[in-house]
């Protein structure tokens, strides 16, 4: 796909097998997929199927054992840290637990200011206005900037985490179970925020979730992982209405019995 923002080709990631001394575990095994600009790709599959490993590897937080990672057509699979730096901005990660992703001794202002200054995106004088704009974009009042993480609710903190990742104006966000720790009502608000950001910024996402309701609500396409392999990938409605694999059918089977 020439217009892909991200293109993974036959990607493989291995770890020493925790259960077999001397053995190798193929946590990700021959995965090929692409993400278009502005596309939300859901990554689903049971625990241990390799979703987080795939997400971290495409961000080059893990070293792939095989295959290629192309970002806007450029091969970043084996770039060293220095060569990778200009590409790091393009892809950011949002984690499940926002509290642990902030330094407890830093205010929200400092947490957002640090990457902005580090990447030379903003002068010190421009910081307050820039940070207020970022907070507004994620639905937080500007007077949250001097707060510390423990002075905010889980939902507010996840908004701040999303704001911090947006500060570098990425084209892709990897969100790993980013709403699964939140209360149901807060979860809906954060999902709506992600939807709005996708639409307004044409932001692409790899959205990792156990929650198939959430995947169905948010994602354009869904990739099903099983033991490190990509089992099937298709438009969301196709995955839900007409899955190819029995495994996918079983995975979504329970969902059809629940109210939407
Ligand atoms: N750093 C590591 N060292 C060794 N093995 C690992 C490491 N990280 C993950 N694994 C193993 O790789 C496999 C895939 O793990 P991964 O965390 O990617 O799965 P997941 O789909 O994200 O699961 P979950 O839904 O529970 O978050 C698992 O068997 C896991 O035990
Ligand atoms: Mg995981």
Automatic annotation (TrEMBL):
One of its GO terms (biological process) is transmembrane transport. The keyword Transmembrane helix does not apply. It comes from the Bacteria. It comes from Teichococcus deserti. Residues 13-252 form the ABC transporter domain. It holds the Pfam family ABC_tran. Coiled coil: none annotated. The keyword Glycoprotein does not apply. This is ABC transporter domain-containing protein. Keywords: ATP-binding, Nucleotide-binding, Transport. GO terms for molecular function: ATP binding; ATP hydrolysis activity. SUPFAM superfamilies: P-loop containing nucleoside triphosphate hydrolases (SSF52540).
């Amino acid at each position: 796909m020439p217009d892909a923002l991200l293109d993974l080709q036959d990607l493989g990631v291995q770890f020493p097998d925790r259960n077999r001394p001397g053995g190798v575990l193929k946590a990700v095994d021959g995965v090929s997929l692409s993400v278009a600009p502005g596309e939300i790709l859901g990554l689903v599959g049971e625990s241990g199927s390799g979703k987080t490993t795939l997400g971290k590897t495409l961000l080059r937080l893990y070293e792939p054992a095989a295959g290629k990672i192309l970002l806007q057509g450029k091969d970043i699979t084996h770039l060293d840290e220095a060569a990778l730096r200009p590409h790091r901005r393009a892809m950011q990660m949002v984690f499940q637990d926002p509290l642990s992703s902030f330094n407890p001794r830093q205010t929200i202002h400092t947490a957002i200011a640090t990457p902005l200054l580090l990447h030379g995106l903003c002068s010190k004088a421009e910081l307050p206005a820039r940070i207020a704009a970022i907070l507004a974009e994620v639905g937080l009042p500007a007077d949250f900037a001097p707060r510390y993480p423990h002075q905010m609710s889980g939902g507010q903190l996840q908004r701040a985490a999303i704001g911090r990742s947006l500060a570098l104006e990425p084209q892709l966000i990897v969100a790993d179970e980013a709403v699964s720790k939140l209360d149901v009502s807060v979860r809906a608000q954060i999902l709506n925020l992600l939807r709005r950001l996708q639409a307004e910024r044409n932001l692409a996402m790899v959205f990792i979730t156990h929650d198939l309701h959430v995947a169905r609500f948010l994602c354009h396409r869904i990739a099903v992982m099983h033991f490190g392999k990509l089992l099937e990938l298709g438009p969301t409605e196709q995955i839900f209405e007409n899955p190819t694999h029995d495994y996918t059918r079983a995975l979504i089977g329970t969902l059809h019995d629940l109210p939407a």
